[in-house]
Write a structure and sequence with these properties.
single chain; about 300 residues; mainly alpha; Serine Threonine Protein Phosphatase 5, Tetratricopeptide repeat; 3 domains; three-stranded parallel beta sheet
């Protein structure tokens, strides 16, 4: 409420002043005090008038703001609802007419980063579809070669599997090497593990599977110290399979690319001739060499 000085105060003040003025006596201290009070009352009334004016302006501004908001809310068009098509999730039957020009589905794409994109089913749809990408499922980051090398379990697992292969426990050795490559595919010993898988298959007479492992050694980027031995064994595998010309090609490549390697000195003297036993000049080619190629240790 807008404040006002009570009218009774002004009435009494005026009455007191009139009485003093009618007495016709000289001005006393009481007269001066009443005059000061009257002046203060006048100032209070003036300040109240100013406050009333400001309060009225604020109330008018609030009313105008409410009116403007009400007008803007009524002017907004109603929200449009459309069909939602989920790609990458369970498919539900869509009974809506695909040729309906008013039907503009919202397409939400979700999936795992790096996965092959999904192709939408063919068909005509009216209007333009609005594509909205949802947050993809985050896959666990792959192990780096540095982190794999620092894992103490990796070296122990590799050495245990290698010992089983060299002890002619080929099945158990292959299981250990497979587990090692699955868990630590980027470990510095990964190339060694591929080579010794080939040795295990070769010792069991599975020359085609052994050749696949030796080829994997050569196909690795920047193949290391196992490349000469892999070329030697590839020649032996194809020689056992009856592909003498292919065997000679691998051995020629070994002599040209690694002429000073120990593997080049172990090329069979009768290169390319299929024999029933161990090829002449080959050292223990029917079973893994216990000494074996140098390890990355």
């Amino acid at each position: 409420m807008r404040g006002r000085v009570p009218s009774t105060v002004g009435f009494f003040l005026c009455s007191a002043l009139a009485v003093l003025a009618g007495c016709g006596r000289p001005e006393t201290a009481a007269d001066r005090q009443l005059a000061e009070m009257r002046e203060q009352v006048s100032k209070m009334e003036a300040e109240n008038d100013k406050l009333d004016q400001r309060l009225g302006n604020v109330e008018d501004a609030i009313a105008d703001d409410k009116t403007a908001r009400a007008d803007s809310s009524t002017a907004l068009p109603p929200a449009q609802t459309g069909r939602v098509v989920q790609l990458g999730g369970p498919s539900d039957s869509d009974p809506a007419d695909p040729n309906d020009p008013t039907a503009r589905p919202d397409i939400r794409v979700s999936g795992v980063p790096g996965a092959a994109p999904m192709r939408p089913r063919s068909g005509k749809s009216g209007g333009r579809a609005r594509i909205e990408e949802t947050e993809p499922v985050r896959a666990d980051p792959p192990r780096s070669s540095a982190s794999s090398a620092l894992d103490p379990d990796a070296k122990s697992a590799y050495e245990a599997a290698l010992a089983q292969v060299q002890a002619k426990q080929y099945d158990r050795g292959l299981e250990g090497l497979n587990a090692f490559l699955t868990r630590w595919p980027d470990h510095p010993y990964a190339e060694n593990a591929l080579y010794w898988r080939g040795e295990a298959y070769f010792a069991q007479g599975e020359y085609l599977r052994a050749a696949e492992q030796f080829e994997s050694v050569l196909s690795r980027p920047g193949s290391g110290n196992k490349a000469p031995d892999a070329l030697l064994k590839l020649g032996m595998c194809h020689d056992r399979l009856g592909a003498s010309q292919r065997a000679r090609e691998y051995w020629e490549r070994l002599k040209n690319e690694y002429p000073r390697s120990d593997a080049a000195k172990r090329i069979p003297a009768t290169a390319g001739r299929k024999t029933s036993g161990t090829s002449t000049g080959a050292r223990e080619d029917s079973s893994p060499d216990r000494k074996g190629p140098k390890e990355n240790r």
